[in-house]
Model the fold of this input.
Amino acid sequence: MTSSTIKSHISIKDLNMHYGKNHALKNISINIPDKKLTAIIGPSGCGKTTLLKTFNRLIENVDGTNITGEVLVDGENIYGKNADVTNIRKKMGLLNQRPTPLPMSIYDNIAFGMSIHGIKQKGVLNEKVEHFLRVASLWDEVKDRLHSPAARLSIGQQQRLCLARGLAVEPEIILGDEPTSALDPISTKHIEQKFVELKEQYTIVMVTHILRQARRIADYVIFMYLGEIIEHGPTEMVLGNPQHQLTKDYVGGAIS
Amino acid sequence: MKKRKIEELIFNIIMRVSAFIIFGSLIAISATILIKGVPAMNLDMITKTPSGGFFLGKEGGILNAIIGSFYLSVGATIFALMICIPVVIYINVYASENSKIVHYTRLSLDILYGIPSIVFGAFGFVLMLFLGMHVSLLAGMITVGLLIIPIIARTMDEVMRQVPVELKEASYSLGATKWETASKVLLKQALPGLATASLLGLGRAIGDAASVMFTTGFTDNIPHSLQDPAATLPLAIFFQLSSPIAEVRDRAYAAALILTVIIFAISLISRILIKRFSKNTL
Done:
């Protein structure tokens, strides 16, 4: 993705993050391509999730973190002095490892994000709730119980609800932190299919520890090890013909 | 081998006996109050204020104390909540986890929690004189409010700390501000626990005698303003129990029965509320 022909959506320049004395992210410089699916892979504790959470500044809620460097989204440094953190986050939908429905009804889960950003008219909300539930392929399953608690949905449905909720604030980027790790195979397939469809319109960055998943759906792969980016590039290159010894070991199963 | 089995048996017995003591003391207390209180109980007790000779064993009731306790405990709980909710939101959402202010707030709450209510009463008395107030419902509300702040705040803090951090992140990632996250997501998630905390405080407020003795006073009348002194059930029990007249002492048990029924009702209501509030939570 260093190729200049690919338009980048997120540009990271000399990003370093210290967590207490721990140097968690080391000199990260990379461009995340626009409207592609990029997977961040690597062994546990290598900084995958940490890197992902620097994109929407959630990482700064963790105590004792110190971040230097730049993360440019649409050319604007999100760590700049004038950056508005709620606007930055609105640009990115987040899917967590475990689905986290808000403690309210299915309908309100989707409407919450829109209403805090100023959409209040009932008609518009109804329309958009339906639209985004359809986008997440959840509408047919929940249309008769929109006002029942979201917590009563199955885990797989909850994750699709979270996807719909994230899309409802009309972001440009979707961040996934191992979004299928808590799901059964069928729900996993649902989410993977959605991601493949959605990358036509959104830039997707997803942390995964499942290599086969990266092979199945990612266009680009970033391999991290101990807080550093070891290798990155198109999926078939990194996973098919890794250059670095660590990548070879990881892809070959010698380290995990 | 044998030794381990005996060990198992001994501890099993100890644990069962302990459980029985808990259950048994509830039964014993309830039985005492019922046996002694029911005969002295009558409609006048809960519908009338004491008439002239009430404390000599003549007619009248303790409506003054029932109403006084109700006003006092509700007022004190509202006052306490006005302080507890912002504090709990601040230390759980706004301040960073390891900051000094969070540490010292929690430490202060722990220490305040351990201070006996008579000390709160003495402090309330000094505060009352300092502010130029008289023994009154308002002075009582403030004193009892201070007494229950650590109870409510600590319980609420525990509840808020158990809200999963992912839920906070989910709200933030939609572009919600801290206040929107706190008020529309976290408080909703924590609502059953927050309700429990408030009712715990209310229960404590209605049952405490030491903190109200010098601040709320005692009167045979129903209070009509915050400046009036007010009777409370724990003090009604206390004064009647210290009477030399047997009939009056018996009525102390009737008053205790009333107080117990109220507290029982509060905990029953809290259980129902918790069930209702839990509907939407994870």
